[in-house]
TrEMBL record:
Residues 19-350 form the Enoyl reductase (ER) domain. CDD domains: CAD3. It comes from Pseudallescheria apiosperma. It comes from the Eukaryota. One of its GO terms (molecular function) is alcohol dehydrogenase (NAD+) activity. Its cofactor is Zn(2+). This is alcohol dehydrogenase. InterPro entries: ADH-like_C (IPR013149), ADH-like_N (IPR013154), ADH_Zn_CS (IPR002328), ER (IPR020843), GroES-like_sf (IPR011032), NAD(P)-bd_dom_sf (IPR036291). Its EC number is 1.1.1.1. Keywords: Metal-binding, NAD, Oxidoreductase, Zinc. Belongs to the zinc-containing alcohol dehydrogenase family. PANTHER family: ALCOHOL DEHYDROGENASE 1-RELATED (PTHR42940:SF3). Pfam families: ADH_N (PF08240), ADH_zinc_N (PF00107). GO terms for cellular component: cytoplasm.
C-alpha cells in the first residue's frame, strides 16, 4: 500500500502544566524514528491514569507539555527504516501504556518488559494518543486484526489488558471465586468479563444501584454495595458461596481503604492483587494472620506483548464486549471532570476525528 499523505499539524489535547486543564489545540505531527511507527489514531480510550498524568500526583515524572492517552487504535501511516516487513503501511495497530522498552535487559529477555528500567510510557513520559497522529516503538504496538472495530477494541489496549493480566497473576482457577473491587469502573467492567470467560465465579464490589445492575449484566453473580453494607467483610465472605472468602481479590479501587481491608476477607491461601494506584496510598495487613493463613499480596502492572495478544484474542472471539460511551476529542475535559468527581460509570472512548 502506498503511503498516505500526512499533514504537518494536527489537533490534540495537551497538558501544558501540572494540574491542567487540558488544552485543545493544534500541534506538529512528528516523524517516526528508525525503530518507530506513526499511527493515525482513530479512537482512544480514557483511563484513570490519564487523570494522574495531568495532576502529577504519582511519584513518577511526566513530560511537559504532554499529550495524554494510552489506549489508541488506528492505522499505520509511516514507519522507520529499521522496522521489519511484518509491519506494513495500512496495518491496524494499537498504542498501549508501554510505548517501548530496551528489549535487551534481563526483564525484557524474560518477557517482563513492563519492568524495563528504560520503558517509555504513552501519555506520561512520551506523548500519547489524544492526538490524531501518535508515535510508538514498532516492537510494542498491538497487532489488531482488520476485521475488528477500532472503536470497540480501544479499551482493550489498557483496561482489558491490565484486567486480564491481574487475573492471570491471581492464579485463580476455573470454578474458584474472585472478588473484583471497583468493579463498576472501566477496569472493573473488563475484569468482570475476562473473569467470566476464564470460568471464575465473581463477587463484584462497588457503590450504587446503577453500578450493581451493570456489574450483574457483565457476569457478576453477587454485588456487594459498600455504600449500604453494614459489615463489608462479613458480606463479602458470605457472598463467597462457602463462607471462607474469595480465592482472589482484584483491587481496582481509587482510594486507600479497600487495600487495607482485603486481608480481612480473602480466604486462607488466597491472593490479593493490587492494580489500582491511589495517590500516596499504602498497603497494610496484620502479620500474624497473613502468615498463618498463607495470604499472598502482590502487585500487577500491565501485560507484556504475549498478554496483549491473548487479551485481544478473547475480544476477537466475542467473549469480551467492552462497554463504552463515545465522545469527541474536543470534549475530553468532561471525562476528566467525572473522574475527579468519582461519578464516572464504565469506559469512555474518544473519537479523535472530532
Amino acid at each position: 500500500m502506498s503511503a498516505p499523505k500526512i499533514p504537518s499539524d494536527q489537533l490534540a489535547q495537551v497538558i501544558d502544566k501540572t494540574g491542567g486543564p487540558i488544552v485543545y489545540k493544534r500541534i506538529p505531527v512528528q516523524a517516526p524514528g528508525p525503530d518507530e511507527v506513526l499511527i493515525n489514531v482513530k479512537y482512544s480510550g480514557v483511563c484513570h491514569t490519564d487523570l494522574h498524568a495531568m495532576m502529577g500526583d504519582w511519584p513518577l515524572e511526566t513530560k511537559l507539555p504532554l499529550v495524554g492517552g494510552h489506549e489508541g487504535a488506528g492505522i499505520v501511516v509511516a514507519k522507520g527504516q529499521l522496522v521489519g516487513n511484518d509491519i506494513q503501511i495500512g496495518d491496524h495497530a494499537g498504542i498501549k501504556w508501554l510505548n517501548g522498552s530496551c528489549l535487551s535487559c534481563s526483564y525484557c529477555r524474560q518477557g517482563e518488559e513492563p519492568l524495563c528500567a528504560k520503558g517509555l510510557l504513552s501519555g506520561y513520559t512520551v506523548d500519547g494518543t489524544f492526538q490524531q497522529y501518535a508515535i510508538a516503538k514498532a516492537a510494542h504496538i498491538a497487532r489488531i486484526p482488520k476485521h475488528l472495530s477500532l472503536e470497540s477494541i480501544a479499551p482493550i489496549l489498557c483496561a482489558g489488558l491490565t484486567a486480564y493480566k491481574g487475573l492471570k497473576e491471581s492464579e485463580a482457577r476455573p470454578g474458584q471465586t474472585v472478588a473484583i473491587v471497583g468493579a463498576g469502573g472501566g477496569l472493573g467492567n473488563m475484569a468482570l468479563q475476562y473473569a467470566k470467560a476464564m470460568g471464575l465465579r465473581i463477587i463484584a464490589v462497588d457503590g450504587g444501584k446503577e453500578k450493581g445492575e451493570a456489574c450483574k449484566a457483565l457476569g457478576a453473580e453477587t454485588f456487594v454495595d459498600f455504600q449500604t453494607s453494614k459489615d463489608l467483610v462479613k458480606d463479602i465472605k458470605a457472598a463467597s458461596f462457602d463462607g471462607l472468602g474469595p480465592h482472589a481479590v482484584i483491587l481496582f479501587a481509587v482510594s486507600e481503604g479497600p487495600f487495607q481491608q482485603a486481608a480481612s476477607y480473602v480466604r486462607p491461601h488466597g491472593t490479593i492483587v493490587c492494580i489500582g494506584m491511589p495517590a500516596n496510598a499504602f498497603i497494610k495487613a496484620p502479620v500474624f494472620s497473613t502468615v498463618v493463613h498463607m495470604i499472598r499480596i502482590k502487585g500487577s502492572y500491565v501485560g507484556n506483548r504475549q498478554d496483549t495478544d491473548e487479551a485481544i484474542d478473547f475480544f476477537a472471539r466475542g467473549l469480551i464486549k467492552a462497554p463504552y460511551k463515545v465522545i469527541g476529542l474536543s470534549e475530553l475535559q468532561k471525562v476528566y471532570n467525572m473522574m475527579e468527581d468519582m461519578t464516572i460509570v464504565g469506559r469512555y472512548v474518544v473519537d479523535v476525528s472530532r
